[in-house]
Amino acid sequence: MEKIHISPDGLNSAAVCKAVENDKGGYILAVFPRTRWVLFKNTHYYNDVANAESGESEHYKHISMIPRYHVHKNNTKVSMALPRLDRANEPFLFIPKNINNKKLVRSKKDKLKFSLTKNYYIFDVDDEYNINDNAKIYFN
Questions:
Q1: Degrees (nearest 5) of the Cα angle 125, 79, 82?
Q2: Per residue of the chain (140 residues), what is the pLDDT tens digit?
Q3: Cα(12)–Cα(117) distance, rounded to whole angstroms?
Q4: Do residues 60 and 82 touch, judged by C-beta distance below 8 A?
Q5: Who's near 57: CB < 8 A, 6+ residues apart?
Q6: DSSP assignment, residue 120?
Q7: pTM value surpassing 0.70
């Protein structure tokens, strides 16, 4: 996995993540001032990693492209949380911006409703890229 130099010092805090447990395993709720995201764990993550390492995966060419979480906003999947390592080998999650969904994004209002216009980062994760409770989401 490539090493990236990012620290939360120069970034802006955007939201707080809350862990919610239910009978299906739970999810992460990201609470922003005007909206909320729901982050669902990728249940096939470890199988996809094993397939990508052995070269048998049809969808993923590299481990860094396998999402650890799927990000939903307004009941629509808008992005994914990708595992990354910084230069100090500390894990974090990278949520890339996504404004390519042409079916949903027809106007500026829809762009803000159904897409992400900034890159986001979550640094408060464990070694398995599980988001800790009360973790902050940052953007630059």
A1: 35
A2: 555 556 567 788 889 999 999 888 889 999 998 889 999 999 999 999 999 999 888 888 888 899 999 999 888 888 999 999 988 899 999 999 875 555 555 666 666 666 788 899 999 999 999 999 999 999 98
A3: 15
A4: no
A5: 48, 51
A6: E
A7: yes
* Distance separating alpha carbons of residues 65 and 136, to the nearest angstrom: 22
Residue with tokens 């390519």: 100
- Report which of 101, 66, 59 is spatially closest to residue 80, judged by C-alpha positions: 66
User: Which amino acid is located at 44 in the chain?
Assistant: H
